[in-house]
Write a structure and sequence with these properties.
homodimer; 495 residues; Uridine Diphospho-n-acetylenolpyruvylglucosamine Reductase, domain 2; Uridine Diphospho-n-acetylenolpyruvylglucosamine Reductase, domain 3; 3 domains; seven-stranded antiparallel sheet; 16 helices; 36% helix; globular; FAD-bd_PCMH (chains A, B); Vanillyl_alc_oxidase_C-sub2 (chains A, B); FAD-binding oxidoreductase (chains A, B)
């Protein structure tokens, strides 16, 4: 393995962000020979072991190799030099001080359920896995907050706060596996967002270990607070490129009543989108408003034999967690019929509702089974443009002769057109990537964004530049440099 | 008037944030003589007039002097060299290019209703008033967004969206006067926050003119989006120190039913705070939960003859804008009684509710009438510590022999202990400032923040440092430098 050390550019070196820790004065070289790389790995390991127990430092290539990538396995990934599994803030500080001194890139990881390669290893990096820092430190029903370490699993937190009559809304599909730290890194969404918003809206304050190992506290544990720039929010969605989140204070909601779900079938995607617009324009506040197209419905049936109606072109699921959800569903059902729904079936109870949600949650797994591999787009458009988005994806699927299933958080305009392809077929793989990109171009054309909730990572770097333009990219880079002048934190991600 | 030009420090000059516009190569001096200052003002005015109509450039000292400060009139303020009132984005860009070239500080202003001196002029600055950019550009009921210029009055927007069945929640007390741009600059709160949150949660995207005149677009017009760092949120609450907001895309909610208010009287502040905790712990979601202490109640009665009950030590107002507010008020009323309320009076209709809210809204004006001048603290504590906060303020009032009325957004733990004093009495003024500071110290001790919604400005600079610590301040400065390497944007505010 050839290690690449981070080479700080002179202008980065000169940025004043405080007294840098002791810096090595060795000669730098663009490429290190294999011998020198091994030497550096050895020194890195030795340095790490001065502040970490042996079981927290993994160097066996068979083991470290398994930390190379997140769920976007088709994105480029390097081989980690070492994987560290700290259990304390001090240990994380030791890792970052070591990385700064030796100029080694650090790639923070949670459960690696991300879909954009943001947690993929850089060649010769330290993988900093936060999974062992998994304690829930506090739950306060009066203050409606939880204080957690980054490795806490989303579902674990959700269930723990439920026991106090509280609710932590963000619910990405991977909620049984993914960590709160990862959710913060990617500003994760989920099914609940149409009513409850994304992760960002639940992060009140953070403890962050900076690139040079110093600890910074941002934000607050109060309901409100405007003391200085909102650095908390800056870290949410920063994909581990600004600092290492080691503690988070999260806002909680009171637990709402159990939601009740309605399913509506439509003869076309645009009729379903019309229903979505009528529902939102009508002032309704559903707790969920999801769309599955015919391809997705069939894929779920094929995999899980759910008995979903395959004759429909688009299946819309709406839910309410209000005190009288049946009344809300009746009103929304009428709007669906006005928009041309061929059938409207409200769930009779929680069990039926759960079954419908389960079908929705199986969508991506179902689509993956179609051809073995998927590329999942994450384009969010203003919901008034949702019908155009769906029509465009149909055209693109036809143009590239591909199966593209669409599952969408329709209420948010957040679509996941999922390109199904056989990764062993180079031509199909090429067409998959081209269609994937064309879908993002369409999203931008419709006034949308290339990523509603999955992040940029490695997968959409060039698209971020297209979305935010040269001035935007320049200012994003300036912020990055302010926090990480040596560029050691998750390099090569975002831009 | 002696003008001070911004003297860029060498290390700031070297920060790479893109090609700086043409820079003057003149000699710099720490202080300019009066002659040179007049010369510079003349050149500044001439340069401004090359891109602005004459009526948009005010130089008459009698006029410009009236733009010297916001509502925190007791904070230091300089004399503006010139006041500009642009009407277009291009005009704002021209102002910033001019300011960069001549190294003149720029102080952005809205309606100057701020309470921390964040809009106070620097000596010899350009005051950039955004009040003429006051168009509502778009309201979309389907996408639930509004696109506005920064000078739109909060109440104007609120009423305009109401006509479409929509609701823009943030409602600072000054909502009939204050601008959306000012609200964004200070991340304003209001009475609605306990249910609907602060301004920050309603800003989806911004057009910002940077210090050097370039235009940057941040964020999105979609419900969700995570493309790159959240620069939108970074600008919210940045008090005009990072760039000039010239357009904002705001999220809207569907208009809720009319809220119904309940008033509960308590024999002590701590009993009222106990009621607040029971209400929030009980999972209720009031649309308003406000507290007025005896001093405040009496001040409002004295001024407006409202007939509020003066025998009470603390008056709690709770409201619900749900579909069955009477039922919610009954439940909350029972919790108030359990906490020891001496009387619980639900409003019978919207008119009675409005009267109670009016009393609350008159609180600060009422307290101002007590002694002629007030210093309004804005300490927010975890609501579990609210009772301790109130008790502490009582002790501080006694210690400094001052009248301090407390009005609080109790549901958020956001208190406004308001120090009443006679500004012509130096000893009382000194005691007022000391008590004001001691209240912030108490807030920090209780795990709170020095500012829940009013911002830092000039008034609380040293307290920001105490709250966020040296590493926090250093990183805040690094962010500032990334956006404004010459330090021309609202210098001397925040830190």
């Amino acid at each position: 393995m050839i290690m690449s050390r981070i080479e700080a550019r002179p202008d980065e070196d000169s940025v004043a962000v405080g007294s840098a820790p002791e810096r090595l004065t060795e000669n730098r070289a663009e490429d290190l020979t294999e011998d020198r790389a091994e030497d550096l790995t050895q020194r890195l390991t030795e340095r790490l072991l001065t502040g970490l127990p042996a079981e927290a430092v993994l160097t066996d290539p068979d083991v470290t190799g398994s930390y190379a990538n997140d769920m976007a396995s088709f994105c480029e990934a390097g081989t980690p030099a070492v994987v560290v599994l700290p259990r304390t803030v001090e240990q994380v500080q030791h890792v970052m001080r070591t990385a700064t001194d030796l100029r080694i890139p650090v790639v923070p990881q949670g459960a690696r359920t991300g879909l954009s390669g943001a947690a993929n290893a850089s060649e010769g990096c330290i993988v900093l896995s936060l999974t062992k820092m998994d304690r829930i430190l506090e739950i306060s029903p009066v203050d409606r907050i939880a204080v957690v370490e980054p490795g806490v699993i989303n579902a674990t937190l959700s269930r723990a706060v439920n026991e106090h009559g509280l609710y932590y809304p963000p619910d990405p599909s991977s909620w049984e596996m993914c960590t709160i730290g990862g959710n913060i890194g990617t500003a994760s969404g989920g099914l609940c967002c149409v009513k409850y918003g994304v992760t960002a809206e639940y992060v009140l304050g953070l403890d962050v270990v900076l690139a040079d190992g110093r600890l910074m506290t941002t934000g607050r544990r109060t309901a409100k607070g405007v003391a200085g720039y909102d650095l908390t929010r800056l870290f949410v969605g920063s994909e581990g490129s600004l600092g290492i989140v080691v503690r988070a204070t999260l806002a909680l909601k009171p637990q709402p009543p159990q939601q009740l779900v309605l399913a509506a079938e439509f003869a076309s995607g645009s009729a379903a989108c019309d229903a979505v617009c009528r529902i939102m324009e009508g002032g309704h506040v559903p707790s969920l408003l999801e769309l599955m197209d015919r391809t997705t419905v069939k894929a779920v049936n094929d995999m899980a034999h759910m008995g979903l109606p395959e004759s429909t072109e688009a299946l819309l699921l709406a839910a309410f967690d209000t005190h009288d959800p049946a009344a809300d569903l009746a009103a929304v059902g009428a709007l669906c019929e006005a928009a041309g729904a061929t059938q409207v079936v409200p769930a009779e109870d929680a069990a039926e509702s759960e079954l419908l949600l389960q079908a929705r949650r199986l969508s991506l797994t179902g689509l993956e089974a179609v051809k073995g591999t998927t590329m999942i787009d994450d384009v969010c458009v203003p919901r008034s443009r949702l019908a155009e988005m769906l029509e465009g994806v149909d055209r693109i699927a036809e143009k590239y002769r591909l199966t593209i299933g669409v599952v969408a958080h329709a209420g948010d305009g957040n679509t996941h057109p999922t390109v199904c392809f056989d990764a062993s077929d180079p031509d199909e793989s090429r067409r998959a990537r081209e269609s994937f990109d064309e879908i993002m171009a369409l999203g931008l054309e419709l006034g949308g964004t290339i990523t509603g909730e999955h992040g940029v990572g490695v997968l959409k770097k060039e698209w971020l530049a297209r979305e935010i333009g040269p001035v935007g990219i320049e200012m994003q880079r300036a912020v990055k440099t302010a926090f990480d002048p040596l560029g050691i934190l998750n390099p090569g991600k975002l831009f």
